[in-house]
Amino acid sequence: MPADEATKVGHEDPAWTVPGRAVVVAVDGSRQNRAAIEWAADTAVGSDRPLTLLHVLDGSEIPLPFHRMEPDDTLGRRLLAAVAETVHSAHPEAHVLEELGIGRLEDTLVTRSAAQSAVVVGRRGHGTFLRLLIGSTSLKVCGRARVPVVVVPQDWDSRAHRREPVVVGVDHRDVQGEALLYAFLEAQRRGVTLIAAHGRELPARDWDQDPPPEFSAVEAAEQASPEALARVVAPFRDRFNDVHVELLHGHEHPLTVLLDRTGPAQLLVLGRHGSRDRRGSFPFGSVAQAALHYAEVPVAVVPPTARPVKETHGNLM
User: Fold this and answer.
1) Is the terminal CB of the chain with fewer CB neighbours within 10 Å at N or C?
2) What is the pLDDT of residue 120?
3) What is the C-alpha separation between 133 and 126, in angstroms, rounded?
4) Splitting the chain (317 residues) into consecutive groups of 10 residues, what average pLDDT does each group show?
C-alpha cells in the first residue's frame, strides 16, 4: 500500500484494510472472467497488494476418494499458470499467487478470502440491450464474505473509466461506515471524485384526507435529509481531506439515484447490513439486490465488521 494511502488506515479500521493482504479473484477460464481478473490485477498493483488467483474444483462432482485428482489438478494448475502469465504481461510488477482449491465454489471463496483484502468475481451479461444479471454464486459470496466483494461485468474495461467517480450508497443504518471507508480509500487511491448518494421516495399525501405520519416516518425522513447525509459523510471528509466529495440526495427511489442520477462511474459501493437469517447468511435489502442485478459498473459490497460465523471450509490442494 502506498505511503499516502497507508496514512488513511486507522487502528480501528476493519482487518481488510491491513497492508499486505491480498486481492483474491475467482478464475474459471472463461472469456467472461477476463474483466474480473484485469480489475483485480489493476487494483492489487495500484494498492501494492498481492494478487491471488483462485481456481476451485467442485468437490460435489468428484466421488472422492475413488476418483483420481491428477488430471483435474493438472488442468487447473495449467489454467492458473496461463492466467498468471497474462497478468504479468500487463502488470510486470504484480506479485501473483496461484491457489487451487476443492469444494463448493462459494464456500471456498468465502473461506480463502476471509483473511485477505477483497474478493473479486465476474458477472455474465445477457445481450446488448439488457442489463447484466448476477449469478447465484456471486450473490451468495456477496452475502457471506467477511471482506469487500467486487462483482465485475464481463465487458468492463477499467482503462476506459479511470477518470470517472466512485459512487457510494449511503444508508443511515450503516452506522459503522465500512462502505464509506472503502469508498473513500478507493477514491483516494484512484485520485477521483467520490459521490455519496442517497435517495428516498416519499409517497404523496393528501393532508386533508390522510392523518399525519407516525413519528417513526418523520424521523426516517429527517435521517434521509440532505443535512443527515452531510453529517454521516463529515467524519470521512475530515479524515480524507484530499478526496473531492459531492453529495447527492434525491427524492426518487434509491436505485434510481444510484444507477441513473449519479451519471457515469467506475465503481459503485454498497454496504451490507449485519442482520442474519436462520441459515447464517446475510439477507440483502431490495435496493442492494437490485443494484447487484442491474448495475452496469463494478459493484463492491462491503460487510459489517463484527459478525462471527461458522463457515463451511473448502480444501486447498
Assistant:
1) C
2) 97
3) 7
4) 50 90 95 94 97 87 53 84 97 97 91 96 58 65 93 92 94 73 97 91 54 52 72 94 93 82 90 56 62 89 68 42
Helix axes 136-144, 105-113, angle to 10 degrees: 30
Q: Report the Cα–Cα distance between both ends of the chain, in Å, rounded.
A: 29
Do you find a cis peptide bond into 65, omega within 30 degrees of 0? yes
Q: Using a CB cutoff of 8 Å and minimum separation of 24, what contacts does 27-34 make?
A: 27/53, 27/54, 27/55, 27/79, 27/80, 27/83, 28/55, 28/122, 29/55, 29/79, 29/83, 30/122, 31/154, 32/122, 32/123, 32/124, 32/125, 32/154, 33/122, 33/154, 34/154
CA 223 – CA 177 distance, rounded (Å): 15
Backbone angles phi, psi at 249, to 5 degrees: -115, 120
Location of C-alpha cell 487511491: 189
- Which grid cell is 177? 461506515
Range of the domain at 85: 3-316
For residue 109, what is the domain's CATH number?
Answer: 3.40.50.12370
- Report whether 149 contacts 114 (CB < 8 A): no
Q: How many domains does one find in the chain?
A: 1
Concatenating the DSSP letter of every residue in 262-274 gives: T-S-SEEEEE---
